[in-house]
Design goal:
2 copies of one chain form a homodimer. Helix content of chain A is 44%, strand content 10%. Chain A is an alpha/beta fold and 242 residues long. Chain A folds into 2 domains: 9-20 and 107-237, Rossmann fold; 21-105, DNA polymerase, domain 1 (Orthogonal Bundle). The first copy, chain A, has a 6-stranded parallel sheet with strand order 3-2-1-4-5-6, with helices on both faces. In chain A, helix 10 (188-196) links the parallel strand 4 (181-185) and strand 5. The longest helix of chain A is centred in the first third of the chain and has 15 residues, at 21-35. The two termini of chain A are 31 Å apart. The relative contact order of chain A is 0.17. The interface between A and B is medium-sized, with 20 and 20 residues. Chains A, B: This is Haloacid dehalogenase type II. Chains A, B: InterPro entries: 2-HAD (IPR006328), HAD-like_sf (IPR036412), HAD-SF_hydro_IA (IPR006439), HAD_sf (IPR023214), S-2-haloacid_dehalogenase (IPR051540).
Chain lengths: 242, 242
């Protein structure tokens, strides 16, 4: 530990901040729905799947359930969502369900993400601090060329954001003081939780994460340490050469 | 899980297999010894420091002590070794001790390591499965351009090799069956433990890890799945183009 409060590491929310989960999941869900003659909009299906995300993690955050990785929650949620659209999950083979569940491993980065991360990586330790599990983050990074220095996040600390433990334990793993770590996210709630733990905060605007009619996270709701239009802009603000 | 037993991920021992710990530590210890007018050979000091490595971890493997990361053990061992050479650790500032302890974060790769890993990375998930902690591995990788897909190892599973839990839990994190994972190491003992857990095994000869008079690990002591002269040779044997 040192009293130096200059940023040494940047931790990134991933779903929505670095990659477009909605477009990616819809792209993978579309052919599945067609194959099964399901008259459901793929984007609507993606939104429904995502709506189960936070309640499923809340079971673990609250202590009512032991930690399981996000792949497991995504799979349970998928079965629920199929049912909600009147589809019997038993009519789909296990292999096909598993394959569809991997949609979350194959999300595309926003156009600025790879370039921004490459610039930031030259000056800082960069790692995801996502609720996604390690294998999910590895598959995504290999496919999309996300140049992480390490895969940190929920599975390493066995807790889900925004539990304070996630930010605190990750900072401790990095051997840094909280003020040497900056949380980067498109979500005010994530940044608020990080700030509570003493981390620096960077808001990145992702105005179409939830589609053209997005209502949430369209502006910084607190004066965060940095507010950026995208990851390239953040790199510029942090003094990283192009 | 699938019955496909083709290798999907390669896990690497790091100290000795990917990097030259002895040369690197001696290089960092040298100036420290000179500064303090200590008539001790830097390589002898490195060897003495490394001799404390396994006994320190054994306290944790045996359950006599809770898990602490390797940086902590290295620091305790450093104080012991200084004392064994007649040097009072209290005569050295805390900052200087901490800095010297970071020698393990600044080890150079063997000449074939980076090229070999880059070739292997195109075809497999590659990650360290080292007893080194996450920050140590991150610092080393950034300095030496080791292109890991993730940082796995002792700190993620909170146990030290060769405890079976390390290999088993890491395989589970990767969502793979043991036969889809190959342990790569210059140490027969590491490979034997991995094989006990069902992993595939690749022996890499590092005949001067312990210097010119090395007696151990000069040959494969079991018929491992692969035996390679270096990481480039392993990449070739595994069908990775140059």
């Amino acid at each position: 530990m040192t009293m130096d409060s200059a940023i040494k590491a940047l931790l990134f929310d991933v779903f929505g901040t670095v990659v477009d989960w909605r477009g990616g999941v819809a792209r993978e869900v579309g052919p599945f729905l067609s194959r099964h003659n399901m008259a459901v909009d793929a984007t609507e299906f993606a939104d429904a799947w995502r709506r189960e995300y936070s309640p499923a993690m809340e079971e673990i955050r609250s202590g009512r359930r032991s930690f399981v990785r996000l792949d497991v929650l995504h799979k349970e949620n998928l079965v629920k969502v199929l049912r909600s659209f009147g589809i019997d999950a038993d009519s789909v083979t296990a292999a096909e369900l598993d394959e569809l569940n991997l949609a979350w491993h194959r999300l595309d980065p926003w156009p600025d993400s790879v370039e921004g991360l490459l610039r930031l990586k030259r000056q800082f330790i960069i790692a995801p601090l996502s609720n996604g599990n390690i294998r999910l983050m590895v598959d995504m990074a290999k496919r999309a060329a996300l140049p992480w220095d390490a895969i940190l996040g929920a599975e390493v600390v066995r807790a889900y954001k925004p539990s304070p433990q996630v930010y605190a334990d990750t900072t401790e793993i990095l051997g840094l003081s909280p003020s040497q770590v900056c949380m980067v996210a498109a979500h005010n709630g994530d940044l608020a939780a990080a700030r509570q733990c003493g981390l620096k905060t960077a808001f990145v605007l992702r105005p179409v994460e939830h589609g053209p009619d997005q209502q949430s996270d369209l502006r910084a709701e607190q004066p965060w340490d940095y507010e950026a239009a995208d990851l390239n802009d953040l790199a510029t603000q942090l003094g990283c050469p192009t």
